[in-house]
Write the structure tokens for this entry.
Amino acid sequence: MSVGERDPHTGHMTTGHDWNGIKELNTPVPKPVLLFLAATVIFSLVYWVLMPAWPLGVSYTKGLLGIDQRTTVETRLSEAAQARANWSEALAEQDFGQIAEDDTLMAIVRHSGSTLFGDNCAVCHGDRGEGGPGYPALTDGSWLWGGEADDIWETLRVGVNAEHSETRIAEMLAFGRDGILDRQTVLDTVSYVQSLSGAMDGLDPDAVTRGEEAFAMNCSACHGESGQGDATMGAPDLTDDFWIYGGDRNAIYQSIFHGRRGHMPQWETRLSPVERKILTLYVRDLGEQAR
Amino acid sequence: MVGQLTKTERQFGLAIAVLVTLLGLAMAAAGRQDLLGVHGLIVVAFGVGAAFLVISGAHLPEPAKERLAHYYDDPIKVGIILSMIWAIFGLFIGVWVAALLAWPELTFDAAWSSFGRLRPVHTTSVIFGFGGNALIATSFHVMQRTSRARMPDQLSPWFVLIGYNLFCVLAASGYFIGITQSKEYAEAEWYADLWLVVVWVTYLVLYLRTLARRQEPHIYVANWYYLAFILVVAMLHIVNGLAMPISLASAKSYPIFSGVQDAMVQWWYGHNAVAFFLTAGFLGMMYYYLPTRAGRPIFSYRLSIISFWGITFFYMWAGSHHLHYTALPHWVQTLGMTFSVMLLVPSWASAANALLTLNGAWHKVRDDATLRFMMVAAVFYGLSTFEGSFLAIRSVNSLSHYTDWTVGHVHAGALGWVALITFGAIYAVVPKLWNRKSMYSWKLVEVHFWLALAGTLVYVFAMWNSGIIQGLMWRTYNESGTLAYSFLESMIAMHPYYVARTFGGLLFLTGAAVGFYNIWKTIKEAPAVQEETAPDRPATMPARVGTVEAGE
């Protein structure tokens, strides 16, 4: 019943249908389309024969090549580990001193350490270990927990205030909030702490003296008698110019009034011993290069 | 609006509005301790609003029988405007999240404005808000025109349109306040999902009823595509949405699938949402508006058929290519990959069918930005389907997966194909719907075209670059066999591309805003057509015996 007409432009017939002015040509499917379809179907058939492809109830066709992603990834991983074995074994066996003296090993520590550090540590400690508010710089030579390789290794292993049974614990008490000291005394100790790093400008000498007394009573047990810090407790040196939380009056006041409890994750269950060794040496090296 | 509804329809409409209000009240009461309560209030607002609308028109006289000699276009008009509103909103949020990736501090110190919440607001608003409303509106237009029949009643199109927008509002507002199922493109929670099922089934029935009333012997291709879109989306939505709410008083639910099965169902859904929402539906749009605008017959009826069945068949299998190199068994990945490769043929056949239809009308493409929108859309459709099949190849995917290349690919499709074909269709249909000679300003259509094209190109090129660089940085080893770059370094390398992408998005958004203004002016000011030259009306004489239904 539908009668086609010839389209003057292409010379093809229409199908004779007309919908709201739309017509369709009866052009045959172009050859390339069919060829292309055949090619992709043949490709798929071949691929199905070679690779794991179709389910068979509880199993599946394994493919002639016997490839499976699980085994592929396992072989690749062990090959990669093999390729690294020449230096990773040396790193595992030698102690920090020996490695530090070996230039080839230190070259590996530097470039693989940089990626490890970027992926695991830089979010908190900064790209180059320069630190930021709340996160200590690792390059300033002023260490909370000691700067020897063994100290750093231990900090990495157990973390600080971390989820590890042996974690290091660092707790700066909330002297003001918990009512251990009144507000005025807190303010006095702030003045004293400021004076410790030589920032005497604008400080009331009486307040500093009062603060010194309060410090001896309340703070020196952790921060040391002269405020030089104590690496066994992670109490920072208050006499230098390096601050975790900031050295201005307000930041120091916040530290003393509300307390501080920095969190450094433990890495024992997350990074291998070799990786932690690399990082330990890398962190020390960062500091040396920065100075 | 309400004056066009019959008295019975008004009564039914009021009943539905009251029912929705009661449902909303129940949600608000049961969920008062939960975020569900907030959504209950939104539902109440919708219900009361709709009831108010119906009541305000209740006194109007019964509409004249004369109306049956015309197509029913009111819901289409509203749908087009809603679609443009969602476009502006969704694109704006898109530019915002793009900017956040370049400048993370560009946000408020509040949970609702965090990247993780804004991102689904963006995707939902553009895909479901903009795309979905455009599909519903144009499908109402196309199904009536190509069937030469008026819709069977006047209430169900409104129910579909308003109900669908209620779903979109529930979805988008939910992400802001922290309600999500955490399934990409299916984030809405169980009650919104259930509501969508009701709306969608009504939509399907409405479509079928209109087709049953058709005065043409055959069903035009565009309708096949729209039907595939409606039918398959219903199936995908229901299966992927199967979930158990933790309680009827809570917005939270858990999917019934878990682990790798859940991932597979999710990507079977996700990829077929691309296939049947973002492809089939818009192909339906293209098959109507491109030939009518070009004034040319479809290049090949046969090609239409094989591409339709090719697309519907192959797409169904392709979803697992989203899960290459994961816990998904290798054989499922193989199937996903090979079917994706075969899928290229019908995809390209569709694009070719569109472009070859333009033979004999290329001068129009040059002069008419509206047709050019559709032509470029077909080109992008071809490009992004090629890219899709290519990225589905496992070894290519090992480079591209998890990188911005995927994001670039999606946007070549979403901006280049989906949005451009929609804008083309909207510019074609707006003057017809509002009975105007043409758009208010053809120059502004031209401006919109170039902004949209430039925006898309800048976006896609930026993401190709950043994606490939990212992929290469992540797999580069140094001579000692450890990774050469940290993730952070790759992020730093992305910065310039993220800035470029934001700029591209901004161009695209500006274009859409220009379009919105132009459409608004067309409705308000453009001169009306005085006399109907070729009357745009349903057929009065039944062409087939036995298809005429009792009318209203």
